[in-house]
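Shipment paperwork, digital attachment
Item: protein structure file
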Amino acid sequence: MVAALLLAARPVAAAAQDAARFLAGQTKTCVKCVLVGAPLKQRDLSGDDLTGADLSRAVMHRAKLGGAKLNGANLTDANLNKTDLKTASLVGAKAENAMFYGSNLSAADLSGADLVDAKMQTAFLIRAKLDHAKISEALLTEARLDDASLQGADLSRTNLVQASLRRANLAGADLDNAGLVNAVLREANLRGAKLTQADLYGADLSGADLTGADLSGARLTGAILTGAIMTGVKLSGTLMPDGSVHD
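Attachment content:
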C-alpha cells in the first residue's frame, strides 16, 4: 500500500518540479504543468511548449508567446492583454472569459478553441485559423480578422462592431444575433452562414459570397451589397438596405 502511494506521488512531484523550473526560467518545456495564477507578465516565452498546461487566471500581460505551443491549455480567466501570440498554436485551448485586448494572434491556430465570452477588442487575428472555434458572446469590437478562417465557428451573440473581416472564410459559421454594425466583410465567404437576427447596420459586404446564407430577421439598413452574391439567401423579415422589410 505504501509503495503504491509512493509510486503515485512521483508524477505529481515531477510535475511540480517542472513548474518550478519553468517559473524560474530554467526550461522552455512545461507540458501539462499546473501554473494557475502564474505571474508571467512581460516574460519572453517565445516557442515554449505549454501543451495541456493549466494557466487559468495566469497573468501574461505583454508577454511574448510567438510560436508557443498551447494546444489544449487551460487559459480560463487568464490575462493575455497586449500579448504577442503570432503563429502560436492554441488548438483546442480553453480560454473562456480570457482577456486578449490588443493582442497579436496573427497566423495563430485556434482551431476548436473555446473562446466563449473572451475579451478580444482591437486584437489582431489576421490570417488566424479559428475553424469550429466557440466564440459566442465574445467581444471582438474593432478586431482585425482579415483573411482569417472561421469555418463552422460559433460566433452567435458576438460583438464584432467595426471589426475588419476582409476575405475572411466564414462558411457555415453561426452568427445568430451577432453585432456587425459598420463591420467590413468585403469579399468574405459567408456561404451557408447563419446570420439570423444579426445587426449588419452600415456593414460593407461588397463582393461577399452569401450563397445559401440565412439572414432572416437581420438588419441590413445602410449596408453595402455591391457585387455580393445572394443566390439562395433567406431574407424572411430582413430589414433591407433601403429600409424596406423583405417578405
